[in-house]
Amino acid sequence: ELCDNLRMTTIPQNAFQGMNNESLTLKLYKNGFEDIHSHAFNGTKLNQLILKDNKNLRRIHNEALRGAIGPDVLDISSTALESLPSYGLEAIQVLNATSSYSLKRLPPLDKFSSLLEAALTYPSHCCAFRNLRTEKQNSLLSIFDNFSKECESTMTRPTNEIFYNTSLWSAEKNTYLFATGEETSPYSYSAIFDDGEVTGFDFEYDFCQPKILTCTPEPDAFNPCEDILGYSFLRVLIWFINILAIAGNFTVLLVLITSHYKLTVPRFLMCNLSFADFCMGLYLLLIASVDAQTSGQYYNHAIDWQTGSGCSTAGFFTVFASELSVYTLTVITIERWHTITYAMQLDRKLRLRHAVPIMLGGWIFSILIAALPLLGVSSYMKVSICLPMDIETGLSQAYILLILVLNVVAFIVICACYIKIYIAVQNPELVAANKDTKVAKRMAILIFTDFTCMAPISFFAISAAFKVPLITVTNSKILLVLFYPVNSCANPFLYAIFTKAFRRDFFLLMSKLGCCKSRAELYRMNYFSAYTSNCKNSNSATAPSKASQALLLLSALEK
């Protein structure tokens, strides 16, 4: 026993050589160890190696246990170790690594061939041993498939008979192992194993009643034993969705920013919406990339990912993008309603000088909401998909509910405005029937995409915020991929790409690059023709009717 010696900073080579050959229990806790050298325990027969509470111990050399027998028990709890040695772990039956927060990765699992009990720091590491246990059980079952009936009869025998048959079978096993000629084991072990592999093997207790590895802490509902995306089909789908979101919104941003036409309020708002949805695409790309890199071994990357800057960045992107997108959609809808309602009052028209401060407020709000989990209000580290799902404190719960309620209110406002717009344009004095139908269909599509995106997520999230979850984290990943980014994929098409004005700007931009020149010229001629026609109509009509101006306005909104 060696403890409370802060002056000892290393354990050198052959430090314990020459001690007796009996099994040793080395208690080396609460010292100043920083490093354990190669062959430090050479020549010893270790039963227990206790290194707990060495707060400065950061490194054990890969060959530190070279030349030693054992240990059966290794305790490295409350140390600063970042990795375990790659040699000498095969004999360990009990591993204690609690409060070892720097130990974020485990060595190859086949090194723990004798491990029966593990007390670790992170639940994700227990997932590794759970998968290992399953693999071992499956291999045993495949080898011993013919012995299942023998196990059933074993479990129904009296205890004393089991012990009797165990010793008898062991004697028979030894006899048959060294037999020659036609003598073979009644269980055909000689056909499966080499002689050395069955030494010490007990049929009833090693196969029929196998030892099960126990590991703590168990994974919780927020971090199940699975990869980031869980389902294989989501792994494929998320790449298609994030590429669509990134490509669509980047194209819209590029065309609107490079357009030589005047920056109007709708164009300005569309730029903001495209940027928000572009950020959502970046979030999905980040999640998809990390999932692809850690597939099958997420347990070894979970801590670095969820506690690192990558997950915090992804979480910030998704909350910022989501809130700015919802905010901008609401402003766009209100602007459309305001334009139609006050079409005849030009002094009440929304100008760019009004839109800029409105959107500045949206940016500040979105940044603040996205930054709160980084400041301790909820957390992005709770789940692998980096959403703020931490509701342990009242403040965190209020934060989640605030976001959800604001999103629901925004959806209600959007629906109310589109209903009012539809009622306005349905008036036969204002617009023709075919125009009415076309506008109604577009509004229905806009509302449907908003509802598809917000409704399922809001419903399940509100129930979870009240600590009555109706869906598991695994299933919530389906919502993340299939419903959460619906708006980010649909918005660039519904609000820009499918409009005449965007197509005109797109072909004009392509003509500058030497492509589609004839198509660009056609759009340019149509634009000036429409502009000249509108000017003539304005000059010839001293008192234009409300219907003609509203029709002109609706045509402009649809471009």
TrEMBL record:
Please give the GO cellular component terms listed in this UniProt entry: plasma membrane
* Listed GO biological process terms: adenylate cyclase-activating G protein-coupled receptor signaling pathway; hormone-mediated signaling pathway; male gonad development; ovarian follicle development; ovulation cycle process; phospholipase C-activating G protein-coupled receptor signaling pathway
Q: What does this protein do?
A: Receptor for lutropin-choriogonadotropic hormone. The activity of this receptor is mediated by G proteins which activate adenylate cyclase.
| Entries under SUPFAM superfamilies matching the protein | Family A G protein-coupled receptor-like (SSF81321), L domain-like (SSF52058)
Pfam family membership, one: 7tm_1
Q: Which UniProt keywords apply?
A: Cell membrane, Disulfide bond, G-protein coupled receptor, Leucine-rich repeat, Membrane, Phosphoprotein, Receptor, Repeat, Transducer, Transmembrane, Transmembrane helix
Name of protein:
Lutropin-choriogonadotropic hormone receptor
Instruction: Record the organism.
Output: Haliaeetus albicilla (White-tailed sea-eagle)
